[in-house]
Write a structure and sequence with these properties.
single chain, 362 residues, alpha/beta, Deoxyhypusine Synthase, three-stranded antiparallel sheet, globular
Length: 362
């Protein structure tokens, strides 16, 4: 008998649940990879002793995936830290601040939209005023006294989350943003390229006017590494769940080479790796490439390759299914509140670095 799982096709019937769809009907090809991703995520990644990092790239939040997927995962304790493009955090607050986005056909005249001051993201459109009013909100917030210093992006996002949550409460917003929810549950959020978004553009504009807010990217590198170091040094495991690729993906994965190659701390790589992407490795477009290739960089523990999967699928399809599956099978965990432990974790990383440096120099 050949190895593997026997394929037993059964008819799809009315009233099918997401759990039934995944368990019985995603059988092969990338449907099979999506089933593997759901099973690894729900049954292995979401165990209590695993620290889960989530990376977000592409225009996900304009399509509502912040409120629909990230917020429920945070609330259920299923995400411990996040690396996101600044754009996803920025566009996500449009909803929670009460602004309106609309779905249209992508077959439109963009010159006409430009004349009417309408912004388009494929089949999503919104008035230019949404950007202008979101910018005004951010600039008003970021001149507050607590922003007048140098800080990492996790602290910036935590402080912004406090103000966004207050604004949501004030208007009775039906939507909670990623920033607001992460603030409430102590989930640190990093932006690997903080200047590459409207958030960063507003920080830069305020600097021209004498604002003292400055972003500390080196601190972000060390702080994110400290999270993964604690996950492994405390006897637990580390997982990275990647939607898209790009800079957020590499930033989350580089925490392991940072420990091994740069800090000299013995480590073997992340234990779990799930990526949803439509990029290809042979064109150079799949940032960080496949799990097996990532092993050569020390990003992935080679003994854990069976617990890695790449599903070549649109994130807007796979992400809701993965979220619904995990919640449907009842996954829920205590919140690790890693943001509250940042200084403690940095101290532990510093001590490990110094200890290994002394050994090397001896």
């Amino acid at each position: 008998m050949p190895p593997g799982r026997k394929l037993t096709p059964i008819p799809i019937t009315p009233g099918l649940t997401v759990q039934q769809l995944v368990d019985h009907h995603l059988m092969a090809y990338n449907a099979g990879r999506l089933r593997e991703a759901c099973l690894i995520f729900a049954n292995k990644v979401l165990r209590e002793n695993v620290t889960v990092g989530l990376t977000i790239s592409g225009a996900m939040t304009p399509a509502g995936l912040g409120y629909a997927t990230v917020v429920p995962l945070i609330e259920a304790g299923l995400v411990d830290w996040i690396v996101s493009t600044g754009a996803n955090l920025y566009h996500d607050i449009h909803y929670s601040l009460g602004y309106e986005l609309f779905h249209i056909s992508p077959q439109v005249d963009d010159v006409v939209l430009r004349d009417e001051k309408i912004i388009r993201i494929y089949d999503i459109v919104f008035d230019q005023s949404v950007l202008l009013e979101s910018d005004a909100f951010l600039r008003k917030v970021m001149v507050a006294p607590e922003f007048q210093r140098k800080m990492g992006t996790s602290e910036l996002h935590y402080l912004l989350g406090k103000y966004v949550r207050a604004a949501e409460d004030e208007i009775g917003a039906p939507h909670r943003s990623i920033l607001s929810t992460a603030y409430a549950y102590g989930v640190p959020i990093y932006t690997s390229s903080p200047g590459d978004s409207t958030l960063g553009m507003n920080v830069a504009a305020l600097r021209l006017d004498g604002n003292k807010l400055e972003l500390d990217v080196e601190h972000d590198v060390n702080e994110s590494t400290a999270i993964v170091h604690e996950a492994k040094a405390s006897g637990g495991q580390s997982a990275v769940v990647i939607f898209g690729g790009g800079s957020p993906k590499n930033f989350a994965l580089q925490t392991e080479p940072q420990m091994q190659e740069i800090l000299g701390i013995p480590e073997r790589g992340h234990d779990y790796f799930i990526q949803i992407t439509d990029a290809r490795p042979d064109t150079g477009g799949l940032s960080g490439a496949t799990p097996s290739e990532a092993v050569t960089w020390g990003k992935i523990d080679p003994e854990q390759l069976p617990d890695t999967v790449v599903c070549y699928c649109d994130s807007t399809i796979a992400w809701p299914i993965m979220t619904a599956y995990a919640l449907s099978v009842g996954r829920k965990r205590e919140h690790k509140r890693l943001y509250d432990r940042r200084e403690e974790l940095m101290d532990k990383l510093r001590q490990a670095f110094i200890a290994n440096k002394v050994v090397e120099e001896a």
